[in-house]
Design goal:
The protein has helices at about 1-20, 30-50, 55-80, 85-100, 105-115, 130-135, 160-170, 170-180, and strands spanning about 140-145, 150-155, 185-190, 195. Helices cover about 55% and strands about 15% of the residues. The chain is elongated, with a radius of gyration of 22 Å. The protein has a 4-stranded mixed β-sheet with strand order 2-1-4-3, covered by helices on one side. It has 8 helices and 4 strands; from the N terminus they run ααααααββααββ. Helix 2 packs antiparallel against helix 3 and helix 3 (about 55-80) packs antiparallel against helix 4 (about 85-100). The chain has about 200 residues and is of the alpha+beta class.
Length: about 200
Amino acid sequence: AWRFVQRVWKLVGDANEALAQPADRLDGEDTASRDMLKAAHKATAGISADIAGLRFNRAVAQIYELANTLSRFIPQVNEAPSITRQSALRDAVERLVKLIAPMMPHLAESCWQSLGHQTLVCEQGWPETDPALLAQDTVVIAVQVNGKRRGEIEMPADAAEAQVRQAALSLDAVARILGDTAPKKVIVVPNRIVNVVA
């Protein structure tokens, strides 16, 4: 626990340095920033549900995961500072501080002050989540042949059935089993599973 407390403090310090860099470039669609925001909002939703359900160990595990994502994102902000990336970083690091406040209130208050706020973090509202950032862009779909799992494919969420079928049939394991024969039946359960009957 002590090491993680030190790590959070260092993360906030690193974030402050990255936010202090001059940035005048505005990235329209920055994938790294969007991924960071999605991870922060997903963590907020998960931690909120875990605290409400008194699952504190799971909440702490998600805080660790968010801290890991932040530590991978900060070097990207340092490499190519932009207004978009710095905005995503500020949102994510402030969320992290608010999310740790119930478990580590003294650290949260110190981090909040370090981020330049004059108020107390305990006076702030619980962070809200954006439903658009919680929606999954892709899903992993299991592929079975005759009821036995043979692999998985990653597809855009709600992809067309024909597209999912084609991707499933093009898997090496499925193609090896089918050989030159066409499948008797292909059952596609959207966003979940493809079952090929040979």
